[in-house]
Write a structure and sequence with these properties.
Distance between the termini: 33 Å
Helix content: 10-25%
Number of domains: 2
CATH architecture of the largest domain: Roll
Structural class: alpha+beta
Shape: globular
Oligomer: single chain
Length: about 250
């Protein structure tokens, strides 16, 4: 069954780190511009293009990975906050000073949150893994020292398969099942011309591709090849036109 954690607005009020639930969900996003960080710090919101949004934005917390533009603070997750809500707005309304931007009329999720808190120590990226959006749980987040610590073995394996599929022109939807947070199941779904291909680290249903997490490139390549064959059998991937950039 899909993740069964309670939305933040259905949980008891909590105002200190000792009251966090281990299974609370954390969405990590990237901040590339200093002015976007100032908006997050002062105005308490962060934008995500609707057409590029991750599978869900209804998490208890948001955290921010600072890119290379931040010099001495780059390459790490250094701040987080409790998510308080979200709304769907046009970019021009979020950033009126950029009303002539080519994406001014595009829809964005405005993710709202409380005061930024510093993650001490920060979560660093010594192996320079590419970061876009990623999900983790509070227990992993608060104890993590590197990006790799945010993933379970299944999570990281599926992330590698996902990126390899993207490289060959197949863009899956990533899903997780969280009924038992200690044994989280990761799943990929690809919309095809004649159906949907599902690949799962859990018990795969009939006709689905079973993903057996491994450490080697060969393990990843074998899973990618099995998914490619399943996609080809269903007429190839369904093509979706996603506008580039933000």
């Amino acid at each position: 069954m899909p993740g069964c954690w309670l939305p933040a607005n259905n949980r008891p009020s909590r105002h200190d780190l000792s009251l966090m639930y281990p299974e609370d969900r954390v969405l990590v996003g990237v901040i590339n511009r200093k002015r976007d960080f100032e908006v997050a710090r002062r105005e308490h919101w962060y934008r995500i293009p609707r057409d590029r949004a991750p599978r869900t934005i209804d998490t208890e917390y948001v955290a921010f990975y600072l890119s290379g533009y931040f010099k001495d603070q780059n390459g790490g997750i250094r701040y987080f906050a409790r998510r308080t809500g979200h709304e769907l707005v046009r970019r021009r309304d979020l950033l009126p000073n950029e009303a002539n931007h080519k994406h001014a009329n595009h829809l964005y999720y405005k993710i709202q949150f409380g005061d930024l808190q510093e993650k001490i120590p920060p979560i660093l990226n010594p192996t320079h893994r590419p970061i876009s959006f990623l999900y983790t749980t509070w227990d992993r987040f608060i104890n993590a020292r590197t990006i790799a610590d945010l993933y379970s073995k299944a999570d990281w394996f599926v992330e590698r398969v996902y990126r390899s599929l993207r490289a060959v022109g197949i863009t899956p939807d990533r899903r997780w099942e969280d009924e038992n947070p200690s044994e989280r199941i990761a799943e990929l779904r690809i919309a095809c011309q004649h159906g949907i291909v599902t690949a799962s680290t859990g018990e795969a249903a009939e006709g689905a591709v079973s993903l057996l997490p491994g450490d080697s490139d060969g393990d990843v390549n074998a899973s990618v090849a099995a998914i490619q064959a399943a996609v080809a059998a269903l007429g190839g991937p369904m093509l979706v036109d996603i506008p580039p950039g933000e």
